[in-house]
Design brief:
Layout (H helix, E strand, L loop, with lengths): L9 E7 L3 E7 L32 H18 L5 E5 L10 H15 L4 E6 L7 H9 L2 E5 L5 H7 L9 H9 L6 E5 L1 E5 L2 E2 L5 H14 L3 E5 L10 E3 L2 H13 L3 E5 L1
Helix pairs in contact: 1-2, 2-3
Length: 259
Amino acid sequence: MSTIIYPSPIFGPIHSRRLGVSLGVNLQPGDGKTCTFDCIYCECGFNADFRPHTPRPSRQAVAEALENKLLEMKKDGVTPDVLTFAGNGEPTAHPDFLNIIEDTIRIRDRHFPNAKVSVLSNATMIGKEDVRKALMKVDNNILKLDTINAEYIKLVDRPTQPSYDVRNVIENMKKFNGHCIIQTMFMTGTTQGKSVDNTGDEFVIPWLEAVKAISPEMVMIYTIDRETPDHDLRKASHETLDAIKARVEEIGIKCSASY
């Protein structure tokens, strides 16, 4: 498969389906993947297949690389819509995440003050006070919630923390008081002979109830776009995503769908 391992600490800019011209910030090593989830649909592959051999970038390295890249973009006349924390694993797992976010905002304000700062997170670390504090400072606090079904999460998202409990994650999402965006992957197909279809009422209705309780700024739903490490996964159809999008909008929450 064509696994994507992103350079560290800066990559791109790339064109994001959901965010526009995005300059990526990767707080994990640039030679492998380390994440608190091991999703079967991750474009970076499975954790065990791409163990890194180098450390995470330091706070100073991130700041210097970001400053240099933004200066280069300014010189080339390229304006980013967003600075996006993503890459080869969970960005909020970096031990200096709060300080890095504060540095990023200062650097952004110097060079491209209209660019948004976004964090794509699987929400496994939002129980930590410093992580919540950091995410309250960014423009787009994008948190993953593929389902509220614990067995589905074990099968598809595969948290590496034995203590992971989606009910606790939802309670922590509520603590943002609406300053978050829920991001959900919808798909069909199978893994290990078991269905991974989370597009039916069995999954969508409880998920909608959780979304309503969290009361986010918006919801981003999407489906598979690139090759996945598990080859039996399938895209959700346009019609299916549009129907789920309409149901989110019916409860009064803005929703986007990426196909």
